[in-house]
Amino acid sequence: MFGFRGVIFDIDPVFANSEEWYESIPEHVRPARDQPFYHLLAENDESSYVAYVSQQNLQHDAEAGPVDHPSLDEMFEGFRNGRYRLRRSLSH
Fold this sequence. Notes:
This protein starts with a strand and ends in a 6-residue tail after the last strand. It has one domain. The strands form two sheets. A three-stranded antiparallel β-sheet has the order 1-2-3, with no helix packed on it. Strands 4-5 form a two-stranded antiparallel ribbon. β4 and β5 form a beta hairpin. The chain is built from two helices and five strands, in the order βαββαββ. It is mainly β.
């Protein structure tokens, strides 16, 4: 629907962003708050950015290839077998 790919790097069990952000989403597409929301290093044809996406708006990436985002090397140790491995220094 929104035409981007991304790598999840954090999850909120329910909506945890600002009220202003939530209200800025048009009501007819505004997701419910009581679902997981994911922080993604995202890319589209024009740019790279950090996205905050409800579970209902995620789809499996059939392409399954690497994502081109400038922050990937800071957070992940590389791409192998269709997955990124979180840097040990960032895991808890």
